[in-house]
Every structure is written in C-alpha cells, then in structure tokens.
Specification:
With about 500 residues, the protein is an alpha/beta fold. The chain has 2 domains: about 220 residues, Alpha/Beta hydrolase fold, catalytic domain (Rossmann fold), CATH 3.40.50.1820; about 180 residues, no CATH class. About 40% of the residues lie in helices and about 15% in strands. The chain is built from 19 helices and 11 strands. The protein has an 11-stranded mixed sheet, sandwiched between helices. α10 packs across α11 and α12 crosses α14. It is globular. It starts with 11 loop residues before the first strand and ends with a strand. The N terminus is likely disordered.
C-alpha cells in the first residue's frame, strides 16, 4: 500500500506458527525508575491517592475514577471515568489495559470481551482492564446532537457538486461545535488524547501497577504513544497495533486514510471479479467504476428502504467504506447488500450496514455517543487550519488520487475548522528511556496505513516492529498465528522478537 523504503532493519519471514510451541512463562514486571506523583507530593497527588471502590458487575468488577477536567487547572472541576476489570484466570502478574480505538470506542465494553480480544495465555497472566476515555460511552458521555440530527449528518451530501450543496456542507460542518457548546457536558472541550493519557497514569497507579501494560488498537495507539512520550519511565509492556500518528496534521492523516481506503476498495472490486458475488460484470477495474457510478447515481435518485429513510449517496458511500476493514467478514456482506440494492432497487440492506457500524438501533436510537466523541477528540487533537477554498482545491486533488472517497473525505475536514480548543501536540514521539515497545502494522490496512507503523517504530527510542502481510485493519487476534505468538511472547516476557518480524 505504502512505500517501505524507510524500513531500516531487515524484515525476516514469520516462522512462528500457531500451536507449534508453548507460550513462555510470564516474567514478573519491573519496578519504575522514577517516583510517582504521590511520592513527590505533586499537585496531582490527591487524584493518585483515591481508593477504587470495586463493585460486582457480572463477570467483572467495576469502579469510578475522578480526574481533573482540565490538567492546566487541576484545582478546578473534575470528571469521572468508568473502569472495568476482568480478573485473570490464573495468578495475575499485573493489569493489562486495552483500548479498541475510535476515537469514541468503549474500552469498558472491549475489556468485557477479554476471552476474544487476547489469547488464553494472556487471560491467565493479566487482569484485563478497560477505561472509557473521558466523554466516551460510560465516562461522563457527551451528547451534542439528537438522534434525528445524527441521522441528518450521515445522510447529507458529503461531496457537493453545486454551490447550494457546498453552502449546506459548510453550514453543517460549523453546526457540530455549536451544538456541543449548547447541549454537551463541559468535558466535550477536554477530550484530547494528551488528557486521556494523563488519566491513564492515574488509573495505572490506582490499580497498584508500577508500570502501564497496554494494548491499543487504531486510535488506541495514539493514546499509548502519547502516554509513552509523557511517562517513558512508566511504560511496561505496550503493544501498539494499527498506528494512528499523533504528530501529523488532520490533512495528512485524512489523505493517508483516503489512499488506504482506496486500495481496500480496489481489493474489494477484485474480490467481486474473482467470486462473481457482486451485481457487476467485468474485471476489477471495470467493477470499481460500476460501483462508483452506482454510488454517484444515488445523489439524484436515492433508493427506498423498508423504513422511512432513503439510501442517499452519502449513506451508500459510507456503507461501502465502513465494510472494507475486515475482508473475511466484511466483503461477503457488502457484496450481498450491493446485490439487493442494484438488482432490487432496495437500499435496506446497505442502510443496515451503516446502522451496524454507527450503533443505530432499529427504533432510531443511537446506542452510544461515538459520533460526537469522534469529532470532539479528533478536532481537538488535530484541528484543520485551512479555508473553504483550500478544501475545495483538496477535494479536486484527492479525487484524482482516491476517486471513490477522496472528495468527500476532503470536504469532511471542514468539521474541524475553527474548533474552539486545540490540544498540545508533540513534534515527535521518542519515549526516551522507555522499556521496549512493540509496534504492529498491517501492510494493507485501510484505515491506518502500514508506513505509519514503520515510522513510529523508527521514531521510538526502544521499539520493535511486527509486520503482517494482509488486507485488514489491525493484526493481533485477527487470524495470524505468527502475529499472535509474537505479541503474546512479548506481553509475557517483555522481550521483543529477536529481529523485526514479517508475518505472511
């Protein structure tokens, strides 16, 4: 997908196969080299001195943690985080915090799926802990929009063709921050990743862990990398899988994703050509053109569905985009939905794909706040500094490089224009003096391009890289025994693979 010339160490073939060797015995965790804020009487000490009041919540324990709303004003207002812990099945050597990404995904719910997200060996050795980031899911969740307003956002034209459509997207883009200002709890302006990483250190300390052991996927890698830069001496065993860079601009990140998604779209078109399961004829290039033509046609002739909504161009494009992440499971379902839409003039199945990805219930309720949380985090971390004219130019340029999604992704930048608060940012992430960190990157990842993982592994002071030759978003527990054994071995021992590893 991306040029790989920046890889400075040779990649060797993955020779560790699932089931061919016993997992190594867990190695105890090291003590940190620096004192905690409690020991130094830091102004944050009162947060580090809390006691977790665990309660039974089914097959796990749950608690609440108080943290400063604004780390620049630690004596001001506070917010609360929801935390869950799934106890180890054996003798725990410590806690393993997990985050599935988003931004806006629930780490609380992710940890509750511990039996599926980590291997039995890791379940045996670690308590699996999930903390919903501030403002997300169960941690003082923000809600800026009504369900009807969220529906309107997803259905509205994201690739304007006329001055009137341009004006609509400009007004809609500006409205989100206004709605958050009017309707959301105060935390909406303080959901930046820098604050989330600082929250994680408070949680780490309250759990009684000298270092942070962590698996972050997708946006979860941004939390982990930020933590490592802020607290390198408190890094334990950290896996960053599907790297989202924290040093790039909103424009650069979005364009990188446009290219990655375009490659995934072309891979799906090839799947259609190879299997004959899509309602189109010809080779992969011809099928790709036909899918684009179908989506473009929805602009003037949206398809009816079984409910009271239509399948618009924006909803059709999002149904395709959001089902390019996991080929083994996504492609057959996307092909079936496209077949129903094209052959029966019925957009019901494609609309259902969108609803599934955005957690919309059949009765029209959105079951989480992931839409608002996504923008609150992304726009604070990476505000867009350009103008409408800049976006218009980018839309033209990106459409040439990524004809399926480039135009709409460029216009989407406007949502983060003029965002009321900007987070502190790092120029580089080195985590000097940290324990070894394991970076995992998939060669054809549609959302977090391979090169981003390579760049982070090269930037970190002490890191190794596992590369998976596959089309998939993230790698650990996604079907590669080679990746799983490399990650498990590192988590159990703290030792990186002997050399950067390539898994086929």
């Amino acid at each position: 997908m991306r040029a790989r010339s920046l890889l400075t160490t040779a990649l060797v073939a993955g020779v560790v196969l699932a089931g061919c060797s016993r997992a190594p015995d867990p190695v105890p965790l090291p003590e940190p080299s620096e004192p905690s804020p409690v020991q130094t009487q830091d102004p944050l000490a009162r947060y580090y001195e809390q006691t977790l009041d665990w309660r039974d919540c089914g097959d796990a324990e749950c608690a609440r943690v108080e943290v400063p709303l604004d780390y620049a004003n630690i004596d001001g207002r506070t917010t609360e985080l929801s935390i869950t812990r799934v106890p180890a099945t054996g003798d725990a050597i410590g806690s393993l915090l997990v985050n599935p990404g988003g931004p806006g995904g629930s780490a609380f719910d992710y940890a509750r799926a511990a039996d599926y997200i980590v291997s039995p060996e890791i379940r045996d050795a670690f308590d699996i802990v999930g903390v919903d980031p501030r403002g997300v899911a169960k941690s003082d969740p923000i809600r800026c929009l009504t369900d009807a307003q969220v529906d309107a956002i997803f259905a509205s034209d994201g690739s304007p063709d006329t001055p009137s459509e341009e004006q609509t997207i400009i007004e809609d883009s500006a409205s989100l921050a206004q709605e958050c200002e009017e309707n959301a709890v105060d935390v909406w302006q303080y959901m930046d990743t820098m604050a989330v990483a600082r929250d994680m250190d408070i949680v780490r300390s309250l759990l009684g862990d000298p270092v942070l052991n962590y698996i972050g996927k997708s946006y979860g890698t941004a939390i982990g990398a930020t933590y490592a830069e802020l607290f390198p001496d408190r890094v334990g065993r950290m896996v960053l899988d599907g790297v989202l860079p924290v040093t790039q601009s909103q424009e650069d990140v979005t364009f990188g994703q446009a290219l990655g998604l375009e490659e995934a779209f072309e891979d799906f078109a090839a799947y259609c050509a190879d299997t004959g399961k899509c309602p189109f004829d010809g080779d992969s290039r011809e099928i790709a053109d036909q899918i684009r033509s179908f989506l473009n046609g929805l602009d003037t002739q949206p398809l009816p569905t079984s409910g009271d909504r239509e399948l618009t161009e924006a909803l059709g494009a999002y149904s395709v985009l959001s089902f390019l992440y996991f080929p083994d499971s996504d492609y057959p379902r996307l092909a079936a939905a496209l077949t129903e839409a094209v052959n029966n003039d019925d957009g019901t199945a494609m609309l259902a794909l969108v609803d599934e990805r955005v957690s919309r219930a059949p009765d029209g309720r959105y079951l989480d706040n992931s839409t608002e949380a996504f923008f609150a985090v992304s726009c604070t971390d990476m505000p867009y500094e350009g103008t409408v004219d800049d976006v218009r130019q980018l839309a033209t340029e990106w459409e040439q490089a990524a004809p399926t999604f480039g135009r709409s992704l460029a216009w989407g930048l406007l949502t983060c224009s003029g965002w009321p608060r900007q987070s502190e940012r790092f120029e580089a992430v080195r985590a000097e003096g940290s324990a070894p960190i394991l970076v995992v990157s998939t060669t054809s990842d549609p959302a977090t391009p391979y090169q981003w993982g390579v760049d982070l592994a090269n930037s970190l002071d002490n890191a190794g890289l596992v590369s998976w030759q596959a089309n998939n978003h993230t790698a650990y527990r996604e079907g590669s025994g080679c990746v799983d054994e490399a990650v498990d071995g590192y988590l159990l021992t703290g030792e990186l693979p002997l050399s950067d590893l390539r898994c086929d």
